[in-house]
Amino acid sequence: MPPVIEPAERHTLSMLVDNEPGVLARIVGLFSGRGYNIDSLTVSEVSHASHLSRITVVTTGAPPIIEQIKSQLDRLVPVHRVVDLTVVGKAVERELALIKVRGKGELRQEALLIADSFRARTVDTTLESFVFEITGKPEKIDQFVSLLEPLGLVEVSRTGVAAIGRGAEGM
Amino acid sequence: MMREMTGAEMVMQALIDQGVEHMFGYPGGAVLPIYDAMFHQNQVKHILVRHEQGAVHMAEGYARSSGKVGVVLVTSGPGATNAVTGLTDALLDSIPLVCITGQVPTHLIGSDAFQECDTVGITRPCTKHNYLVRDINDLARVMHEAFYVAQNGRPGPVVVDIPKDVQFAKGMYVGPENIQHRTYQPRLKGDPEKIKTAVEMLAKARRPILYTGGGVINSGPEASRLLREFARLSGYPVTSTLMGLGAFPASDRQWLGMLGMHGTYEANMAMHDCDVMVCIGARFDDRITGRLDAFSPDSKKIHIDIDPSSINKNVKVDLPIIGDVKHVLEDMLTVWRGMKAEPDRRALAGWWSQIDKWRARKSLAFTTSDRIIKPQQAVKALYDQVKDKDVYITTEVGQHQMWAAQHFHFEQPNRWMTSGGLGTMGYGLPAAIGVQVAHPDSLVIDIAGEASIQMCLQEMSTALQFDLPVKIFVLNNEYMGMVRQWQDLLHGGRYSHSYSESLPDFVKLAEAYGGVGIRCSNPADLDGAIHEMINVNRPVLFDCLVDKTENVLPMIPSGKPHNEMIMPDHPEALDDAIDEEGKMLV
């Protein structure tokens, strides 16, 4: 009987952790040490008074691996809670990106038009460049970037996904 | 209790308040203040080791044989890095340790100062948790938390890294009372519904098996007692991993012996053919399962474990129960009695008669010779002479370890200390010293190999200094035997660097340390020589010259299922037992 290979799924995990030195290294080390994927990672303090940070990890793996990742994270001492937002229900996921394009004439015009249709904001302008700011789902940003590619794309800086569950309940 | 004291004094006070009686350590620049604070008290006794790896293994042996937390104190830099092997060993075998490491003063951290290393960075993946204490006001709380984390939930090693300026700084000490951990609250009681389902599944089983592991030992002696009670009540067969030996008495008729790669035929066949398996405090390790997709194909699997990450890690189970073994077994017994469960006696009788047929294969059989000592015979001879004594056994890692597991039999938990998960050569001697510290009047024997013993042999000196009369029983076959066995299996018998060249004269070596050396090569002299060893009240290094060609059997070759074991009556099957895929495995 050949082993059943389940297809990989993309999951967004949200964690509340003690905001102490090394906590991020602990989580990142767990992923690399056990061979799990990190597609994106965001971390920031969310409560100064109670020293809590929120970490959002987007990961891919077969369902048993995702379960394993969650229990491995959950047993880390400074981790308060792990929630799989993908399982809990449709979560709001947003990412911010800053994108620099360089060009003159028609290309410049075209870049501005595309930025406008994606509701990106222009946050820096010179005579031969723009920096656009765009917020949205990761796929939307992917698409925006790929359209800018032939128009003089210089560089991209993305925050990674921040996510939160819908509805009245908190994690 | 609140009192002002220095950081170094806080460390000692916290150890005293945690009930620590012994610690194992080695001084150095970054822990001198703690050694000075130690000088001013005599409640905690310090065992000076010869190498920091030895200190950690001693603390492991101490912890595993006593149920207490083992405590280690080492300096910064090389002190900490030398401890890493021991910490990893303790993590894989779930041994509760607190390891205090000195660190360069906070203002020098990151400057590549003398004997500086990133201790918390290096030990993060090999500890259950670790702390760098930068502020004197955190020190007392962190010390108490470290003990809490080490011994609650699935036990493990915890490192507390303390910069030298924090050891000198003054602050308020708080006692262990009222220290509650904010986040780490492991679940002890199993889900009652699942326990009820488990009992129903077990009561209906026709071919049940209890597969037990180190978690039963870690849960405390009461867990072993409850396991015995459940086995007696149900009449079900019991097997165990290497780590769980002693939880169930080896003299019991329901005992099938150890399972896994070098387990007995009856244990592995019963695992393969069972219809309900309950895994109690074990983790479906690769030494146990053999080929995963052929592991116990027709059974319903129940898994009791305190660590949720052990569930479905290697083997998908039908009914996971998260909880401490003791609590879960207690509740299972209550439910079993409450519903007046009655196993299917006829099915069970059939199952036992099948098991007896497997038993009759005598998978641990070996042939003796009157010219040369067989290693199995040496272990058996040792067992026969010490079995009625108050005895503790440790091992190194390799063939001798497997022969010890197969031919030395345990009646009680906490009597068997071996490096199971990490497989650390050099573990046995320091572990034996740690056991002897915890049990000064007991007989403590390290069953060793001539290669492994040389990895931490310097600790002979520690044994002599502290009058710890450990016995080192070396099965000397002049090979790294397990390496040689696998070179036979996989590499055409090309013994690349597995011969123990330039061995020391172990008898002279023992005498050089101030211990006793004994050598034996003649089967006729074996009993007398063992008698001499166990009746000396000093450390003994026993050089037992054994057959150089013996292999450990039976064996599940890597990549094979439980029902394809190589048996001692057909050892030639070893020659082509492993296919290309199996060769990739270890």
From TrEMBL, chain A:
Pathway linked to the protein: Amino-acid biosynthesis; L-valine biosynthesis; L-valine from pyruvate: step 1/4; Amino-acid biosynthesis; L-isoleucine biosynthesis; L-isoleucine from 2-oxobutanoate: step 1/4
SUPFAM superfamilies for the chain: ACT-like (SSF55021)
Class of this enzyme: transferase
GO biological process: isoleucine biosynthetic process; L-valine biosynthetic process
Keyword Transferase: yes
Keywords: Amino-acid biosynthesis, Branched-chain amino acid biosynthesis, Transferase
EC code(s) of this entry: 2.2.1.6
Any one GO CC term of the record: cytosol
Pfam families: ACT_AHAS_ss, ALS_ss_C
GO molecular function: acetolactate synthase activity; acetolactate synthase regulator activity
Catalytic activity: 2 pyruvate + H(+) = (2S)-2-acetolactate + CO2
Oligomeric and partner information: Dimer of large and small chains.
Function: Catalyzes the conversion of 2 pyruvate molecules into acetolactate in the first common step of the biosynthetic pathway of the branched-amino acids such as leucine, isoleucine, and valine.
Alphabetized PANTHER family for the sequence: ACETOLACTATE SYNTHASE SMALL SUBUNIT, ACETOLACTATE SYNTHASE SMALL SUBUNIT 1, CHLOROPLASTIC
Family statement: Belongs to the acetolactate synthase small subunit family.
Protein name: Acetolactate synthase small subunit
The organism of origin for this protein: Ancylobacter aquaticus
Lineage: Bacteria, Pseudomonadati, Pseudomonadota, Alphaproteobacteria, Hyphomicrobiales
From TrEMBL, chain B:
Cofactor: how bound: Binds 1 thiamine pyrophosphate per subunit. Binds 1 Mg(2+) ion per subunit.
SUPFAM superfamilies for the chain: DHS-like NAD/FAD-binding domain (SSF52467), Thiamin diphosphate-binding fold (THDP-binding) (SSF52518)
Keywords: Amino-acid biosynthesis, Branched-chain amino acid biosynthesis, FAD, Flavoprotein, Magnesium, Metal-binding, Thiamine pyrophosphate, Transferase
UniProt-recorded Gene Ontology molecular function terms: acetolactate synthase activity; flavin adenine dinucleotide binding; magnesium ion binding; thiamine pyrophosphate binding
Record-listed E.C. numbers: 2.2.1.6
Pathway: Amino-acid biosynthesis; L-isoleucine biosynthesis; L-isoleucine from 2-oxobutanoate: step 1/4; Amino-acid biosynthesis; L-valine biosynthesis; L-valine from pyruvate: step 1/4
Catalyzed chemical reaction(s): 2 pyruvate + H(+) = (2S)-2-acetolactate + CO2
Residue ranges constituting the Thiamine pyrophosphate enzyme TPP-binding domain according to the UniProt record: 397-544
Keyword DNA-binding on entry: no
Enzyme class (EC, first level): transferase
Pfam assignment, any one: TPP_enzyme_N
Family (UniProt): Belongs to the TPP enzyme family.
Protein name: Acetolactate synthase
Source organism per UniProt: Ancylobacter aquaticus
